[in-house]
Amino acid sequence: MRIKELIMKYDPGIKITLLLFHFIGFCFWISALEANSINIIAIVLTIGSGILLVIRELIKDGINWFLVTEGILTIVKIALLLTAFLLGLQHYFVLITIMLLGILSAHLPKQIKNKKIL
Questions:
Q1: Residues 3, 72: Cα–Cα separation, whole Å
Q2: pTM
Q3: Measured between alpha carbons, how far apart are the two ends of the chain, in Å?
């Protein structure tokens, strides 16, 4: 069985598992900020599961995923994270903005989420 067929077959379980790890990592990342510390495991868990979620979407929908609303919002989130990292910003505002973009992209109506923008 090809990888795409496997992912499609087990997609609901794969997606919910990756989202769970993504959420747990993000919660610990925010908690570490509150304690004025850095939790590398939380950061790696959040970014790693995020990368796997993007790979999952690319396997399912192909490169066109980057041209639809959901893909573009994901690119914006990645750009914000990268900018915050490069500037050494560890503020709630950056992570909360990224979280709100994630919530927005996850809960948009399907016709808007999959609308081709570029």
A1: 25
A2: 0.82
A3: 33
